[in-house]
Write a structure and sequence with these properties.
Number of strands: 16
Shape: globular
Largest sheet: 9 strands, antiparallel
Helix content: 10-25%
Strand order of the largest sheet: 2-4-3-7-8-9-6-5-16
CATH architecture of the largest domain: Beta Barrel
CATH topology of the largest domain: Thrombin, subunit H
CATH superfamily of the largest domain: Trypsin-like serine proteases
Oligomer: single chain
Structural class: alpha+beta
CATH class of the largest domain: Mainly Beta
């Protein structure tokens, strides 16, 4: 059995005491990034009391700037409610607190909401399409650095899938770690071959993702954006959503047709 790994502020307090490829988008001007900006992949996000980890920075042809998180970060269901087609969600327009930002962002897209009105949605999409976009306030655009901490990147989007035992790289930021950043960057491996059409990568990392790491960015061996952390299984593996497919679905089921991943300012640097 899998469960979502969003955590709540209360839980942390208690412990303390495709036809269209996801990487193919219309051309648009790249915003001016801040290499020292406090808003970046891996910061904590808070939605209606739930804490998750942001994945990648995005922008569109109008130079709006966004950050990604899991759709289940805005869930109104429980941790074992993993079907996005039947589990409730906070509405579009919900405020999202993004660490490093001076003003709340706004939830502008949720795959869980989009799939509920999609008559052709598949069971695989209901189970694994777990993606949301938060639009940052324009006052915070100058505070954004698109680079993944520790690893660098991303550089583009993985559109080809991965063979078994491929190395993957991630950066979690659960509030349950209490800021112990040495535990945040992790290396892992895929357990099975996942074709480009597969919605879910099954991966083992040392250590596995924990509640609050939901939404974390995953990179492949070349530093391409691979996916985002979605579920925790009883065998200790994590389910990672295929970002390429999630972006293709977003572009065909929302007005964010020009949305694309921002490349990192620092070069991807794996250690294995």
């Amino acid at each position: 059995m899998s469960q979502r790994i969003r955590t709540t502020v209360l839980a942390a307090a208690l412990v303390a005491g495709t036809g269209v490829l996801g990487g193919a988008t219309p051309a648009s001007a790249v915003p001016v990034w801040n290499a020292n900006g406090p808003i970046h992949p891996g910061v904590q996000t808070y939605t209606a009391g739930g804490q998750c980890t942001a994945n990648f920075v995005f922008y569109d042809s109008s130079n709006n700037v966004y950050i990604g998180q899991s759709a289940h970060c805005a869930s109104t269901g429980g941790p074992t409610d993993t079907n996005g087609c039947i589990t409730g969600s906070q509405p579009i327009g919900t405020n999202v607190t993004v660490t490093g930002a001076t003003r709340p962002g706004k939830l502008v897209y949720s795959s869980w909401i989009a799939m509920k009105s999609d008559p052709s949605v598949t069971s695989a999409q209901c189970a694994y399409n777990d993606f949301a976009i938060v639009k940052l306030d324009a006052a915070d655009y100058g505070r954004v650095n698109p680079s993944v901490p520790f690893w660098g990147g991303p550089q583009g989007v993985n559109t080809s899938g991965l063979p078994a035992r491929s190395y993957v790289y991630t950066y979690g930021n659960s509030s349950l770690r209490f800021g112990l950043t040495p535990l945040s960057p992790k290396v892992g491996q895929t357990t099975t071959t996942t074709p480009a059409t597969g919605w879910r990568y099954s991966v083992y990392t040392v250590s596995p993702g924990i509640p609050g790491d939901s939404g974390s960015a995953f990179l492949d061996r070349n530093g391409a954006a691979l996916g985002t952390l979605s579920t925790l299984s009883t065998d200790g593996s994590n389910g990672v959503m295929n970002l390429n497919l999630a972006l293709a679905y977003l572009r065909s089921h929302s007005t964010l047709t020009s949305l694309q991943v921002a490349n990192g300012l620092t070069t991807f640097d794996p250690i294995v």
